[in-house]
From TrEMBL:
GO molecular function: manganese ion binding
Name the record gives this protein: Cupin type-1 domain-containing protein
Taxonomic superkingdom: Eukaryota
Record bears the keyword Nuclease: no
Positions that bind Mn(2+): 79, 81, 86, 125
Organism per entry: Acer yangbiense
Record's keyword annotation contains Metal-binding: yes
GO cellular component assignments: apoplast
Taxonomic lineage: Eukaryota, Viridiplantae, Streptophyta, Embryophyta, Tracheophyta
């Protein structure tokens, strides 16, 4: 059995050969989506990508993002992403979404602002704004720097596949196939390859007698039939129009909170920063983090809202369903590491270490 994923790099990051200037914070910053802020909605469905092609710093980091804009009544036609699951977070409006698994079962849902929905890797899926008056906007996270997109209407009817073959496949006549081809503007052809083939398209937390099933990491806490609700996460709805928190707050949609992410190698978090707050120094041992700032301003390296008056909010995407978080202040000074060891490591005295520990002592 063979499997593959985005290549695992042996350095912290990959610098393209055509970059000759010293690498600084600008290399890790993507500003192209700023143009969408306050802009008029597009006349047609539009995807603005931040993948490796647009943002070279993502090379080797196994994560990417896209902003999806749906004017009233528009759709993102049935398509697949051969190299990643898609975790969609609806920011504005409402969407009808769905995917079809390998047993030809449709899983569908109607999403409200603040909801998430996961489309498992490689499966045919779609999104539709059924509202005839209002636009919708979503942010999608992918567990690959180059998830790829295969549009089924384009792939089937604009790439030169013989009319007779298509007519036989769809059990129709050549005239119908030619009418479908005429209605779809030609697009440049592209090729893709599957970098990973999971044992099943999603992991259900219980062994079942009918496919698809997971062969590992199964729990016994889901007993009802799986439908679109299993792939929907609604807990972040509560943040929509809510008052900002008093302290920095992270609302996660990882495999712990959203079991449908099991095996999909993607997760999201909403980060809220009241004025003057910070997300202390930390690491994610199982993933890079791709942060998308949607409100306010942040100083990053560490994450700090230096604005003394206004809050900030960001979405962070991860190329793992369980990226993990190691908070360095807590790990170092709230886990009972011996005072003397810490004093020697930080070249200070025990009294200083004890003062740091006292400030980080768990609150009741």
């Amino acid at each position: 059995m063979a499997s593959a994923a985005d290549p695992d790099i042996t350095s912290d990051f990959v610098v393209p050969s055509n970059v000759t200037a010293p690498v600084d914070g600008n290399f890790f910053t993507f500003t192209a989506i700023r143009a969408l802020v306050g802009a008029q909605p597009p006349p047609n469905f539009k995807v603005t990508k931040a993948s490796m092609a647009e943002f070279p710093a993502l090379n080797g980091q196994s994560v990417s993002l896209a902003v999806l804009q749906f004017p009233a009544g528009t759709t993102n036609p049935p398509h697949t992403h051969p190299r990643s699951a898609e975790l969609l977070f609806l920011v504005q409006g409402s969407l009808q979404v769905g995917f079809v698994d390998t047993t030809n079962k449709l899983f569908s849902q109607t999403l409200q602002a603040g909801d998430m929905f996961v489309f498992p890797k490689g499966l045919v899926h779609f999104q539709y704004n059924a509202d005839a008056q209002n636009p919708a906007t979503a942010v999608s996270a992918f567990g690959s720097a180059n998830a790829g997109t295969v549009s089924l209407p384009v792939t089937l009817f604009t790439t030169g596949i013989d009319d007779t073959i298509l007519a036989k496949s769809f059990k129709t006549d050549v005239a119908t196939v030619q009418a479908l081809k005429a209605g779809l503007a030609p697009k440049p052809s592209s090729s893709f390859s599957y970098l990973h083939s999971p044992l099943s398209e999603w992991h259900q937390p219980q062994t079942r007698t009918s496919p698809p099933i997971s062969l590992s990491q199964l729990n016994a806490n889901v007993t009802s039939p799986v439908d679109g609700n299993f792939f929907t996460f609604t807990s972040i709805r509560a943040l929509v129009s809510a008052q900002p928190p008093q302290n920095s707050k992270v609302s996660k949609a990882s495999v712990t909170e959203f079991p449908a992410l099991n095996g999909q190698s993607v997760s999201l978090a909403v980060l809220q920063f009241p004025a003057g707050t910070t997300n202390p120094s930390h690491s994610h041992p199982r993933s890079a983090e791709l942060l998308f700032l949607v409100q306010g301003s942040l100083e990053v390296g560490d994450l700090f809202n230096a604005d003394a008056q206004k809050p900030a909010m960001a979405f962070s995407a991860f190329g793992s369903a369980n990226a993990g978080t190691v908070s360095l202040p807590v790990t170092l000074f709230a886990t009972s590491i011996d005072d003397m060891i810490l004093a020697k490591a930080f070249k200070t005295d025990v009294a200083t270490i004890q003062a740091l520990k006292a400030g980080l002592a768990p609150k009741p």
